[in-house]
Write a structure and sequence with these properties.
The chain has three helices and no strands. It is mainly α. The longest helix has 22 residues. The N and C termini lie far apart (41 Å).
Length: 71
Amino acid sequence: MTTRKRITTPDERRTHRELREALDELVQHVRVVRRTLPSLPPHELEHAQERLEWLADEVWRLALGEDDAPP
């Protein structure tokens, strides 16, 4: 499988700053959950899943260019 590296310009990176920040937060959350998964009690696991879903929705909203937060 070949990977295609997409070249981004500094202007594009500045333009999509909120999206990059949301993606960074999503990745960080996944890493923390993965690292702590064996020791998470059920209620914390449920909260982690809800947060993951919310972050994914936020990334999707920003990727589509929707400026308004969901109700």
